[in-house]
Amino acid sequence: MEYIAGGVTAPKGFKAGGVHCGIRKNKSKKDLALIVSDVMCSAAAVYTKNLVKGAPLYVTMENLKDGKAKAVICNSGNANTCNANGIEIAKGMCDLVAGLGVCESSDVIVASTGVIGQPLSLEPMKNAIGDLYKSISYEGSLSACEAIMTTDTVVKEAAVEFEIMGKVARIGGIAKGSGMIHPNMATMLVFITSDVAISPNMLAVAVKEDVKRTFNMISVDGDTSTNDMLSVMANGLCGNEEIKEDGEAFKAFKKALNMVTSKLCRMIAKDGEGATKLLECKVSGAKTEEDARVVAKSVITSSLFKAAMFGADANWGRVLCAIGYSGADVDVTKVDVAFKSAAGEIMVCSSGAGVDFDEDKAKKILLESEIEIIIGLNDGSGYATAWGCDLTYDYVKINGDYRT
Amino acid sequence: MEYIAGGVTAPKGFKAGGVHCGIRKNKSKKDLALIVSDVMCSAAAVYTKNLVKGAPLYVTMENLKDGKAKAVICNSGNANTCNANGIEIAKGMCDLVAGLGVCESSDVIVASTGVIGQPLSLEPMKNAIGDLYKSISYEGSLSACEAIMTTDTVVKEAAVEFEIMGKVARIGGIAKGSGMIHPNMATMLVFITSDVAISPNMLAVAVKEDVKRTFNMISVDGDTSTNDMLSVMANGLCGNEEIKEDGEAFKAFKKALNMVTSKLCRMIAKDGEGATKLLECKVSGAKTEEDARVVAKSVITSSLFKAAMFGADANWGRVLCAIGYSGADVDVTKVDVAFKSAAGEIMVCSSGAGVDFDEDKAKKILLESEIEIIIGLNDGSGYATAWGCDLTYDYVKINGDYRT
User: Fold this and answer.
1) pTM for this structure?
2) Which of A241, A332, B187, B203 is the most exposed place for a label (fewest CB within 10 A)?
3) ipTM of the complex
């Protein structure tokens, strides 16, 4: 099981691409992406729990009721959320794909990302869909990934190759997301493809289990988006016998899926709006896995802690504080905290109280761009990891005037 | 019922003051405050729900078990939290007050605020307590208020005069708090005094009811402090018959208390770390008061919305998003949103969808220093107000290197 190049087009039989169609004013920025499988796929998705949901999510939910899909269409620059005719536009986007002869309109996964509450016209997409379809290719993942970016500063692709039932299989994914990142159930936009044969039910089980430990464990700013969605399409072209139940093959699939999703999570957290540092909080010794998750997420979500990390300030009191208000069942007198990076590791708190430590060494460790916060709760065997980023001047700048 | 000058020394029979004792290096910054009543008081307090609690809170809880207190001692510059000998130091602070002949050690409310996890020595306080006691006066509220400040940029005092059972009575308060402000149950440090006669039980009821609508409704950064505490001491010197049950007098007391606490709340939110704007979110038409509270607090807590307000950007999609993920029972298709300030009022969202509005007018409104966000949920009669502030470069700067 190893990482390979390519994103959604790493698995067999998936074409992808992206173009600038005109939703965005900046002509050098692609704003419409298309992913198409050569054959029908098992498909599953998870969605934001925000009560305010983008119209495309409702259309996708309807289309995935049969657990089947063949294509993804997604625009950036406009979230198609809180618009009077949002459902009509989202269905219109599916119809555009159907008009290409790719599949029925009801076999399309549709998504939008960008500003909320701005009217979205189908016109530019209608004009561009023909050229977009011509442009998609078996190497087009990067182009599709570029077309779904908003404030992202880097493309986010990951793919894994692994063996399943004697066949060589692949899972690949692309993701976008930089602000409004605090997923609850699903996240941002993530499109995953695979050439594994797996039933829609088992695919749904694998996705739900995975997001609990991956996308639900990242936070940039505590704001859960209205348009969060993660979808997986598996087309079976690697040639394995369809996975229909738990077992070796399902475990291998889940492990490969987790390799792709956890890599995308790290990329999203590291590219958080304005971020200069990736924060990876590893909690062990919790009473339950859920307690570990709650603690890890509370720490990487704390604005005070995030600002301290921006300043490379080993202010472990902020960590203790965030553990204390997390709501997890923790004995605060047992808590150990250490900071770790490429520059070394340093213990700063033991049994809930401060220890003497070398401030210069701590500073050196925290000046690196990837920081691990290692928390031992010493009260059980639950563990979890959460990913976040520092809070910087640039986060404020980016969001002080996002719409213009 | 009207606001008057003075804070904790506005009510009859309370002396207060503050000195620099040496916990802080900066000699021009006072760091030890004392409030003393001429006679024994009914007393009540509420405390942070953070599992990590400052040692002084445990000592105060113990001392207030009998509902009586006569003095408050509070240092700034060190939170006395996560220290091995914290309880000993906090008790030692009470003993210093007892040593002055003011009252028993168990009649003292003790508090600390500042950095977490740094050893605190009793020595500088022991050396200064005599001079501090000499310096307290019936006009000393401001001096005490200065001595409890940390990153606060303005002093926070409020007092109200009102009639109760034919007597002229007063309630006054001082508060500190600028960062780590997201109270849950109590908040920051708030010391309130009154010359009303009221039983400890009724005082506790009044305080619990009030904080639900005041201090629990403010947020600067979503971080619930380890040292939050609000205490009230009522000494009865205004001469009214002791309030022992609900009725006219209790209602008047609660109303006056709310005038003091809501004013302090506005001051704390407006002086949030790095803040340039006070945000006051008024929610009406909620199914329940609790739903209104949840929605109001979610909006003023959203980092994205806070950054948009810093940029005077009328990005109402951020408001809808924060309502949607708040967890409150809301019909998002009924939501109206308007922005209001000294420069006017503008409707930006109606029935959950955007309305055409004058961007220049919106900008002008949002450039003011006090902004109201008016949300109509049109689904019931619950209402609530929450107070917050914008998210700015200076918040990041202040917290990037807090300890030095």
Assistant:
1) 0.76
2) A241
3) 0.72
